[in-house]
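User: I'll paste a sequence; please echo it back and then give the predicted structure.

Assistant: Echoing your sequence first, then the prediction.
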Amino acid sequence: MYILDEIIAQKQKEVAERKELFPLRLLERSLYFESPTVSLRKYVTRPDKSGIIAEIKRKSPSKGAINPHISVEKVSIGYMQAGASALSVLTDTPFFGGSNDDLTIARKFNFCPILRKDFVVDEYQIVEAKSIGADAILLIAASLSPAQIQNFSDFAHRLGMEVLLEVHSKDEWERNEAAPVDLIGVNNRDLKTFRVDVNISRDLAPYLPKTAVAVSESGLDAPAIVVELAEHGYQGFLIGQRFMESPQPEKAARTFIQDIKRIKAR
């Protein structure tokens, strides 16, 4: 079984359990459910920002534990002070060591767009995302049908949230190019094998519409890669592991963003 299949099977069980424990009417009473959201699309494209979507990721199926004991408060504030455009918070527990509490803590201490990074299989999770303080959700083309992506996107928009659609191949993009999403994420990591190849972003760039807010994800280990991908039309860059492998992820992000600026100034 591919890792993605295992994650989705686990997620379906988890959602069924959470529906019993935390019914929709309870989620809708959350402080954040009626709060206005912050636009991920606008922040990623702001000229005074870096385009970096800095991620909080405690572990992964491919790497195991990365930085499991970080302070979400300290790291999230530090990311934004370093010049990140937005935050991404992994809320999956079994495979990535995250939690809904991680996102709510980040929300409490930051006024910026927050992407809930998880594996959406049910509308319930979109309501849940809004209730914990997320501004945007991730939809993964490899695990959803075009009809599901359409329906989930429409539902998220009705709640005032934005959608980042993640694709990994030309075929995945072509099946979903009519989807009403706000950002297109090109994942350089194959979610079935977890192999990483930045050429995926380079190869897919010509097929993405010029009006799209394109985000490159995974494997962005060097500032020079970010600068190069910007020349291919990417405006957003989702980076987690590169920062989280440092004992102080927020300082790693600051150095990385400063290096991008230095390269661009040459």
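The first strand starts at residue 52 and ends at 56. The mean pLDDT is 96.
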